[in-house]
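Lecture notes, part 5. Sequence design as translation. It can be helpful to think of inverse folding as translation between two languages: the language of shapes and the language of residues. The source text, in structure tokens, appears below.
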């Protein structure tokens, strides 16, 4: 008997069930279009499940292809890390290159390619056959390998030099966890096209190097026990080390402290002038001992000097020097001429009662009459120019500095060593054969 179609309690006739896949019900109007299957072979009976399975394989293959393309773009066009130090010389870059070799960074991170640019380095990701194998197993392998290499590299760099991420002003102390540090190059003065600048790092190295003259900011001057305020940078690690040439007091400034309130050098080593020493008198304490610091590395004395270019014209200048034990009458030294320099520095102007000395002596000049018995390896810096020669001289003079790099024997090192007069008192330092390494391949 036919039921009425209206009224209370009337049951609707049961609908006929159809075999519609659950995935199709969920997709609704967003169901995959036929274009997704244009390369898929459709069998009789419209096997929908097989089509979906084939389409997923195709999409996975496309994702892997995109990963490979992205890796190739990074390797050829887009630097992942940009390291910069805005200074008037490249001695710090030569030092950084030697640190990279010393710690075998090029071997530990073979995926990273270095390129020398103005004021620093650009670092690219360089995928190789091993990366391609990983991609075939895991579509995210390229990104994981790239991220891990970059983070490990920056962590190691933060243990060697005072650096920070310029974009978000965070200091690299080596304590951060794996992951994006923020930053990148967006918002900087560099012109670089990128679809994802947050994946890049713009690393700034503190623009202070050994031999630079610095005027400490008032806040740092007060917190350090009033050292200086005119100090000389004598060592650079992941901290900056300064010495007051008038008292031999030293100061260590960590990267975190420096970048909280950055300051620039008052004068740099490119502005050093030659002075001739006429007389040296060592300063002694109440016990009659020579005033010294850093296990005798620095010894205080009062010296009389005259600018070498004005011998017989200018009057003698008296000043204190932290390297007096290395000097004697007739020696040539490098110093800063504060009397005739145009010192436009806000930190210096903040010291109203500060009386500037005429000259501050920084280091001794050595005239070696024989060729060096050692050489350096390079992988991206050009071993030439005045900055490079100055860097080599610093290595020859400073045993602490050269202990941080790799020195290799010259091809004629044995014959050259026989002509060198080694000075046990340190007044004429030379690198000895036992400090050198045999040939080594980068």
């Amino acid at each position: 008997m036919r039921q009425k179609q209206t009224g209370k309690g009337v049951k609707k006739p049961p609908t006929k069930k159809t075999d519609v896949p659950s995935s199709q019900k969920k997709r609704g109007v967003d169901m995959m279009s036929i274009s997704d299957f244009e390369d898929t072979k459709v069998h009789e009976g419209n096997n929908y499940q097989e089509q979906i399975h084939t389409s997923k394989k195709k999409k996975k293959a496309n994702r892997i292809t995109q990963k490979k393309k992205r890796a190739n773009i990074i390797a050829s066009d887009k630097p992942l890390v940009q390291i910069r130090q805005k200074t008037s010389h490249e001695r710090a870059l030569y030092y950084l290159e030697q640190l990279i070799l010393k710690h075998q960074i090029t071997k530990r991170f073979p995926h990273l390619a270095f390129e020398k640019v103005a004021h620093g380095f650009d670092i690219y990701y360089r995928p190789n056959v091993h990366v391609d194998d990983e991609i075939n197993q895991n579509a995210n392998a390229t990104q994981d390998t790239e991220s891990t290499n970059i983070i490990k590299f920056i962590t190691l760099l933060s243990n060697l030099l005072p650096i920070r991420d310029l974009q978000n002003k965070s200091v690299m102390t080596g304590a951060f966890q794996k992951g994006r540090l923020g930053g990148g190059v967006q918002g900087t003065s560099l012109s670089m096209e990128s679809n994802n600048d947050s994946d890049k790092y713009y690393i700034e190295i503190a623009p202070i190097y050994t031999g630079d003259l610095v005027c400490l900011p008032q806040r740092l001057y007060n917190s350090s026990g009033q050292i200086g305020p005119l100090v000389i940078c004598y060592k650079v690690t992941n901290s900056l080390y300064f010495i007051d040439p008038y008292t031999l007091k030293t100061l260590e400034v960590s990267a975190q402290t420096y970048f909280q309130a950055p300051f620039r050098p008052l004068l740099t080593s490119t502005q050093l002038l030659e002075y001739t020493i006429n007389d040296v008198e060592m300063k002694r304490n109440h016990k009659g001992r020579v005033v010294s610091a850093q296990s005798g590395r620095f010894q205080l004395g009062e010296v009389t000097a005259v600018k070498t270019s004005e011998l017989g014209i200018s009057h003698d200048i008296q000043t204190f020097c932290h390297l007096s034990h290395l000097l004697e009458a007739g020696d040539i030294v490098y110093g800063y001429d504060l009397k005739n320099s145009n010192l436009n520095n806000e930190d210096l102007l903040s010291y109203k009662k500060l009386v500037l000395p005429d000259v501050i002596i920084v280091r001794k000049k050595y005239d070696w009459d024989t060729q060096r018995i050692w050489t350096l390896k390079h992988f991206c810096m050009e071993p030439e120019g005045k900055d490079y020669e100055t860097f080599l001289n610093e290595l020859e003079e400073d045993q602490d500095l050269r202990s941080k790099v790799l020195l290799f024997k010259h091809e004629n090192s044995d014959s050259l060593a026989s002509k060198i007069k080694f000075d046990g008192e340190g007044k004429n330092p030379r690198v000895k054969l036992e400090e050198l390494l045999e040939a080594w391949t980068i």
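The translated text above is only one of many valid answers, since several sequences can fold into similar shapes. The chain has three domains: 61-205, 213-364, 374-435.
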